[in-house]
Amino acid sequence: MAEDLIQLSPAGLYCPAGGFHIDPWRPVQRAVITHAHGDHARGGMGVYVSSHDGLALLRSRLPRGSLLRGVGYGRRFRMGRAWVSLHPAGHILGSSQVRVELGDRVWVASGDFKRDPDPTCAPFEVVPCDTFITEATFALPIYRWRPASLVAVDIHEWWQQNAEAGKASVLFCYALGKAQRLLAELAAHTADTVYLHGAMVPLTRTYREAGVAMLPTEPVSELPARHDFSRALILAPPSAAGSPWMRRFRSHVSGFASGWMRVRGNRRRRGYDRGFIVSDHADWPSLIRTIRETGAQRVLATHGRTDVLVRYLREIERVDAAPLVTPYSGEADD
Amino acid sequence: MQRFTALYQALDETNATGAKVAAMRSYFESAPPEDAAWAVYFLTGRRLKRLVPTAELKQWVLAATGMPDWLLEETYASVGDLAETLALLLDSELAPPESEDMPLHRWVGERLLALRGMEPEQRQHAVTAWWAELPTGGRFVLNKMLTGAFRVGVSRRLVVRALAQASGLDAATVTHRLMGHWEPTAAAFGDLLDPEDRGEDASRPYPFFLASPLEGKPASLGPVAEWQAEWKWDGIRGQLLRRNGDCYLWSRGEDLMEGRFPEIEEAAERLPDGVVLDGEILIWIDDAPAPFHQLQRRIGRLKPSARMLREVPALFLAYDLLEWRGEDCRQHPLGQRRQRMEALLNGMEGAIRVSRPLAANSWTELAAHREQARELGTEGLMLKRLGSPYRVGRTRGDWWKWKLDPLTIDAVMLYAQPGHGRRSSLFTDYTFGVWSGETLVPVAKAYSGLDNVEIEALDRWIRGNTIERFGPVRSVRADQVFELAFEGIAESSRHKSGVALRFPRISRWRHDLGIKDADTLEQVRALLPEQPS
Question: Measured between alpha carbons, how far is B285 from B264 in angstroms, rounded to an integer?
Answer without folding.
Answer: 15
